Amino acid sequence: RTVQLHRPLDFTVVTDHAEQLGETHICKTPGAQGHDSLVCRIYRGFPRVAFYLMNARYAVLGTRWGFCGDGGEHCLSAAGTIWRETQSAAEEAYDRTPACGFTSFVGYEWTAGPGGGAHLHRNVIFRNEKVPDLPISVMETGFPAINLWRALDAQCQGGRPGCEAITIPHNSNIGGGYTFASGRGLEDEIDAEEAILRQRYDRLAEVMQHKGDSECMLDPSAPDEACAFEKLTSPRMISYFGAEPLRPTDFVRNALKRGIALEDKLGTNPLKYGMIASTDTHLGTPGLTQERGHPGHGGGGKPAREGVPPGLPDNLLFGPGGLAVLWAEENSRDALFEAMLRREVYGTSGTRPTLRFFGGWDYSPELCDAPDLPARGYAGGVPMGGDLPDPPSVAAVPSFVVAALRDPEPGASPLQRVEIIKGWVEGDSLHEAVILVAGGENGADVDLSNCQRRGAGADRLCSVWRDPDFDPEESAFYYARVLENPTCRWSQWACVDAGVDCSDLARVGDGFEACCSEDHRPTIRERAWSSPIWFSPR
Fold first, then answer.
1. What does the pLDDT read at residue 222?
2. pLDDT digits (tens, 9 = 90+) for 138-168
3. Which of 70, 213, 415, 493 has fewest C-beta within 10 Å?
């Protein structure tokens, strides 16, 4: 199968799972030592069985198969072959000319699954072509994330001149409580040493991807109806269709609140995350995020080895994934990597709205009308991902400017509203608030029989907002969230295009039964999330 994006990407990275690079290469290479092992025969003959069998081995036991040889030598050697091919592919795709047409990074995925399949996975992205000889996998580090950061210190930052990396936790929504806990384990506390090490590497968090949203969860004590968005039903990878309740600690907003509390204690915020989104595609199709025609993403979803299965192409709870947006001076590895380091990034649920967010102490209410808004935003404060400087006076109150433009794609959904989410520490308590700053509920909806949108919206929304409840003695963060008018979700598009009529269940085609399920979410309200801006009392 092939696909073609109708809108190109500026950059990407393909992050294959480090733990299986050598094993799968051996199983696919006749004559390789281990090719005729039982595990490899299962891999070739029963790939779906092998998917669970091989993943469970390293996820639960963290050990290699016997065919890998003493110390895993055969699999490590084979992994080196694939790792070199990965580097060559990234180099071939990278446009080093002054045109800066496309940027590719070298990277991989560190795939820890402690606690019976908790999703402690991290994408490891390197600044340039200077990388370790082998990707550092769970086989070498064990499950504690702190061992990954220490190994990167030894083999990259401290052991190879010019080598730099960041680690991006993804799918924290199925992290089983591990993602934002101490990198040593659930029973440990984050200490000052870990806080510094963690902030060196864990600069960004993935707020949205194929397997759901990780921004926030519905909390009766702090109601935010927009948190009821693309949620899975369990906090662990192996049970995401089960009844185990979600964990509030697995969501980015709660991690951000805990981070500012830890900064008050440790002097460093170990959970200071910029926000991006990505696809987590297992078909090698980054950027394939449109709802209509979604082919599924493989991996933990529906298998697609022989093509798209009949009916819905993916599990009902999954989706096309999101996109990462970086504000950088140019489309080059160095410039984009610096943007990630300073967290001047935002994520979208798959559409392409433009989002600016600045914080300062003296933005004028007329700034939204200025043609040079970005330049004045930088001149008067800090962009998303930054830290507010000290207040210029005792009575100073921070102001924020947020500007959003509708996705320029013809037929894209208009904008509905813009919100600023604030989190803060007051004594020993953590708080949050959602403030509507532009637009609002507009009654827009969708005709589910044909997926036609109904109702008006905006091409542009902008606001300058001052925090009336600011306390210079309290740590706080602020980020912007932009919501579009509702549209048909991928699953509803598939149901409509197949002519599914839920009033006549006997005639619903094979594989489309979920179209008529009570669990089916027929619409989606696409959105974007900025990275936060932080304030810390001095």
1. 66
2. 999 998 999 999 999 999 988 899 999 999 9
3. 70
Q: How far apart are CA 510 and CA 43, in angstroms?
A: 28
3-state secondary structure of 41: helix
Of 236-240, 253-257, 359-363, minimum mean pLDDT range: 236-240
Question: Helices (H) and strands (E) in the chain — how many of each?
Answer: 12, 24
Instruction: Measure the CA–CA gap between 278 and 328, rounded to whole angstroms.
Output: 18
Closest CA to 344 of 203, 527, 196: 203
157-199: per-residue pLDDT in tens?
Answer: 888 999 999 999 999 999 988 999 999 988 899 999 999 999 9
C-alpha span between 91 and 130 (Å, rounded): 11
What is the rounded distance in angstroms from the CA atom of residue 506 to the CA atom of residue 529?
Answer: 42
Residues 6+ apart with CB under 8 A from 218: 224, 225, 227, 228
Cα torsion 222, 226, 228, 234 to 10°: value is -70
Token pair 């089960």 in the structure block, residue = 242
The proportion of the chain whose per-residue pLDDT surpasses 70, expressed as a percent, equals: 96
Mapped onto helix, strand or coil, the DSSP state of residue 522 is coil
Burial of 520: CB neighbours in 10 Å, binned 0-12, 13-18, 19+: middle
Residues shown for the chain:
538
Spell out the domain ranges in the chain. Answer: 11-17+97-347, 353-535
Instruction: Report the C-alpha gap between 356 and 453 in whole angstroms.
Output: 26
Q: What is the pTM of this model?
A: 0.95
User: How far is the CA of 493 from the CAs of 193, 291, 295, 312, 498, in angstroms?
Assistant: 50, 7, 12, 10, 8
Neighbour count for residue 293 (Cβ, 10 Å): 13
The answer to whether residues 344 and 384 touch, using CB atoms and an 8 Å cutoff, is: yes
Question: What DSSP string describes 155-176?
Answer: IIITTSTT--EEEEE--GGGBT
pLDDT at 472 over 70: yes
Q: Is 385 within 8 Å of 344 (Cβ atoms)? A: yes
Q: Quick one: tokens of 419?
A: 């919100």
Amino acid code (one letter) for 320: P
pLDDT of residue 300: 63
Taking a C-beta distance cutoff of 8 angstroms, is the pair 175, 250 a contact? yes
